[in-house]
Design goal:
Shape: flat
Radius of gyration: 22 Å
Structural class: alpha+beta
Distance between the termini: 33 Å
Mean pLDDT: 81
Amino acid sequence: MNPKVLVCVVFFAVGVCTSAPIPALADDSAASIAAGGLVPRRETRIVMAKEVLRISDKKVVVDYDFRNDTNQDVTTEVAFPVPPYTLDLVTGDVAEQSFSNFRLLVDGKPVPFKTEVKATLDGRDVTATLDADKIDIPSFGHFDDPPGPDYPTRDFIRLPKNEQEQLKAWGLFNMDEGFPLASWTVNLQYHWRQTFPAHSTVHIRHEYTPVKGFEGLDPSPEVISLANESKFARYEAKLDVEDRDDLNLLMGFCPDASLLQKLGSKVWVELSGLRDEIGGADWVDFILTSANTWQRPIEDFTLIIERPSNDNRRSLVSFCPPGGGKVEEIDAAHIRVHLTNFVPWSELHIGFFPVYRAEPR
């Protein structure tokens, strides 16, 4: 299991911290990236009248109705901030990390947006240095583009040798793996200018593919028992490191007795096994508290979660309901939480526990 650290994500004037794993070189786990909603420059004249948040393991779609109750049009810069990210050799999928398929619609029509990008290294802004050498910042110099076995960094290897050496001396690239690896952190946001007419409602939709986290899960009977009895804090120190990590992972999803019973009886095995088995935990994170940069509360909030399913697997779902709301089963594939006058003070951490079937059904 990988250690977790506190990752802080800054949204314009709003700082949000989320307990999420950071990317690491490992083969048994990977980190999610906790993206979230749309953020203005603290615009309290605009009411979030309605938010419908649809989350699956493959897509996030958010529909908003923003209402301006004032007598004047309000124009503000609105952003979708991408959490800062570094080069991740676990997935190597820079397009996912940068949410490059982010899509925006206003009142049903696609709207263009701008991209603002900055590179930092040890707290220093190194954007100008990289721009001067025409090194693409979000893709880490077109790392592994096109894909290849030797992980080429196209923008670096085309430079003269002396320039390559200078960039390495400045710490912008290292050769620890035998090929050039970018060392900077990408700070990226998509943004646009939005007008909210007086006494009117504007509908905004944005959608993207989430960056999932995953981790192998093999909870011991002791872990299942402690999770069932909610004795995490009392007994955590007595567990070994692996059991403690499993318990920490489980409790983050607010598991109920039914899920724990299934986890206790059907645990992680190789996918070549002949029985139905639960194969670890996937999760999707979503930052809800970015909504607090608009006028509070959200008058009408709905969360809809779709269970992943295909011919040879289905998924159990577990999460801590926002605002302590009631979890309802819409149908076999969807779960809903509905709240009115909702002020979010915590983030969403949705666990998907895939159950692999022995044969397609």
